[in-house]
Design goal:
- With about 350 residues, the chain is α+β, with helices and mostly antiparallel strands.
- It has two domains: about 230 residues, P-loop containing nucleotide triphosphate hydrolases (Rossmann fold, 3-Layer(aba) Sandwich), CATH 3.40.50; about 110 residues, RNA polymerase II/Efflux pump adaptor protein, barrel-sandwich hybrid domain (OB fold (Dihydrolipoamide Acetyltransferase, E2P)).
- It contains eight helices and 20 strands.
- The strands form four sheets. A six-stranded mixed beta sheet has the order 6-7-8-3-9-10, with helices on both faces. A five-stranded antiparallel beta sheet has the order 13-12-11-14-20, with no helix packed on it.
- Helix 2 packs across helix 3.
- Bound molecules: adenosine-5'-triphosphate.
- The site of adenosine-5'-triphosphate (ATP) has 12 residues, from strand 2 and helix 1.
């Protein structure tokens, strides 16, 4: 975690009738950090964000900001900036009116408001657009105006709830980088809610993977991707191959008739079920003549070549399952039907017990 802890979430629980939206959440966020809440629809990420914002009250637990318990403080007295999926810009106001809104509420003199709006429009790369109406802006421009409005009052914490989800894919990817650069430049502590793992991995210092009201894993994007702690995390972050097997001894797992050597580390006792996770880009494909450990044979069933990346789907008949491989660029092109051997370095395997 970068910086000193500024936000502390302690044992937060929340139910809506019979629905347990949050089932006991603990988390610390460091000063200047960008943390992503990542998880499928309904996992509780928006509820947690709304509790931090003060728009919802937790049934149990506490939120501390800069050392103070803030649960009883109303949203407008928390000093946080927010951008929601809907953006909630005021259609009857122009760009300047929207951005200056929180400044007006604070009673800032008009001249200062104008100067601050100009500065914010520079910051979000929309200089000179003060007089435009909201409906005269593109999706990306609207997004930037919402961000400028959230930043106007120099918030101590920026809360972003899927603010990019209405944008088309290309613009969305550009905005991810832009927002991240801006956040780093300002050094503003930020929480971003998303269900898009690419977005989380692009933007976050740390990713908080959630499911069914619980945090499954917290860590830097590459650590969460490479070392998932459980099958849910492995499945939610990117593509993976999963082989179900049984522990044979401290370093060997049997999958069907195959034995795989796994890296050193705690494994359950012999006979216990275990799942081996191998990322597609760790698998090395060859034309099939090889022998050795950690090797499977199969046949190419489909090649998805979208220009910037290639995925090869291989039917491993002997295991009765399909594996996906992202070959490195120097591997030869493979045709559907081609026999192949799949192999991976031992350290590419993550053995999971749940
Ligand atoms: P999404 O990505 O779809 O926004 P989410 O992870 O943000 O999902 P939440 O919005 O936090 O999930 O919802 C968590 C659970 O709580 C869901 O089952 C949801 O239906 C329920 N829930 C959220 N808000 C309310 C509410 N005001 N009344 C009743 N149930 C609610």
């Amino acid at each position: 975690m970068a910086g000193e802890t500024v936000l502390r979430i302690e044992g937060v629980e929340k139910a809506f009738g019979a629905v347990r939206a949050l089932a006991g959440v603990d988390l610390e966020v460091g000063e200047g950090e960008l943390v992503c809440f990542l998880g499928p629809s309904g996992c509780g990420k928006t509820t947690l964000l709304r509790i931090i914002a003060g728009l919802e009250r937790a049934d149990r637990g506490r939120i501390r900001f800069a050392g103070e318990v803030i649960d009883h403080r109303p949203p407008h007295r928390r000093g946080f900036g927010m951008v929601f999926q809907s953006l909630a810009l005021f259609p009857h106001l122009d760009v300047a009116g929207n951005i200056a809104y929180p400044l007006r509420l604070r009673g800032m003199p008009e001249r200062d408001q104008r100067a601050r709006v100009r500065e914010l429009l520079e910051l979000v790369r929309l200089p000179g657009l003060e007089r435009r109406r909201v409906h005269e802006l593109s999706g990306g421009q609207r997004q930037r105006v919402a961000l400028a409005r959230a930043l106007a009052a120099e918030p101590r914490l920026l809360l972003l709830d899927e603010p990019l989800s209405a944008l088309d894919a290309k613009l969305r990817e550009d905005m991810q980088v832009e927002v991240r650069l801006l956040q780093q430049r300002l050094g503003i502590t930020t929480i971003l809610v998303t269900h898009d793992q690419r977005e989380a991995m692009t933007m976050a210092d740390r990713v908080v993977v959630m499911n069914a009201g619980r945090i499954h894993q917290v860590g830097p994007p590459d650590a969460v991707y490479r070392r998932p702690q459980d099958r849910f995390v492995a499945a939610f972050l990117g593509r993976r191959n999963e082989l179900e097997g049984v522990v044979e001894d401290a370093r060997t797992v049997k999958v069907g008739a195959h034995r795989f050597t796994v890296p050193e580390g705690p494994l359950p006792p012999p006979g216990a079920p275990v799942w081996l996770v191998i990322r597609p880009e760790k698998v090395v494909l060859s034309s099939g003549g090889e022998e050795g450990a950690n090797l499977l044979r199969g046949r190419v069933v489909f090649v998805r070549d979208v220009g910037e990346s290639v995925e090869v789907f291989v039917d491993c008949g002997e295991l009765g399952q399909q594996l996906v491989v992202v070959p490195s660029s120097h591997q030869p092109a493979l045709a559907t039907g081609a026999p192949v051997a799949l192999r991976w370095p031992e350290e590419a395997i993550v053995a999971l017990t749940a």
